[in-house]
Amino acid sequence: MGGGAPVSVQSMCTADTRDAAAAVRQVNALAAAGCDIVRLAVPDMDAAKAFRTIKEQTRVPLVADIHFDYRLALECIKSGADKIRLNPGNIGGKENVRAVADAAGEKGVPIRIGVNGGSLEKDLLEKYGHPTAEALCESALRHAALLEDCGFRDIGISIKSSSVPMMVEAYRKIAALTDYPLHLGVTEAGTEYTGIIKSSIGIGSLLLDGIGDTIRVSLTADPVREVKAGIELLKALDLRRGARLTSCPTCGRCQVENMIDIANRVSARLEGVDKDIHVAVMGCVVNGPGEAREADIGFACGRGSALLFKKGEILRKVHIDEAVDELFREIESM
Ligand code: SF4
Predict the structure, then answer these.
(1) Is pTM, for the whole model, over 0.85?
(2) Which of 192, 196, 202, 220 has a beta carbon 3.0–4.6 Å from 164's, enabling a disulfide?
(3) Pocket of ligand 1 contains residue 283 by CB under 6 Å
């Protein structure tokens, strides 16, 4: 994470970490969906001890999310955590910060400082009146300074807010102030539909500016949906390879009745395709052939038939009921 590494997608388990079997199941489901990094809440010592079992039975990098108790961080570092999320200003003093920094440094475990608009320090709230982009930045840099004082610099930072404009402003400010890798997210973004819109605007705006090293789309939904949304977000910005679909939104020119169903079927089947291809499914011969030609593969529908294109060339005319299967036959051969 950071430097020239590709932007990674992460999510967080909703399973109770103390129930190692349930957490393992969910970590594996997230990894299977393409999640690069999985975070687990570690609220107590039982959870910290379960972390070892979960780590042993999974392959994806795991982050231990810890608040207040530095001993949980030490236990998770021992248990093989790949990263710790903790705010050093909240763990009870310099000695504790040093203990965590030393243990993490010894094992090469990075620490993410996670500042959140909803949990800013009291003095900063008094200074700024309410959560602001400046307050978020000041808080993050203050936490970072505590680790730097211990000679620890393997740091990542997030400064999340549920307000998209504030989150974008805060990350732009912090990106100008530090070179630490940034974990982007709109916190408590909402249920799936709203949350994806808010996250896409917030995270997407920053990534377009070249800001951000890892992302989490935060949704009140199954975390697998967060991963799928994060991957789509990166693909839309050409930051991740994979299958991308252009599909006709349908209009009065559409020559096929079930265009929406066709596009949904193609989209669902593309989830299982691990190829860097651009696919277009179009509803007419007005815009259809142009888009289908620009894609790697696609079809444009006519009445009862579809013209199949590949790499800009017409392949053949197929019956409309066969179009999706024919498309995937061609995709398999690519
Ligand atoms: S591809 Fe054709 S049918 Fe689809 S929206 Fe465009 S013009 Fe309309």
Answers:
(1) yes
(2) 202
(3) yes
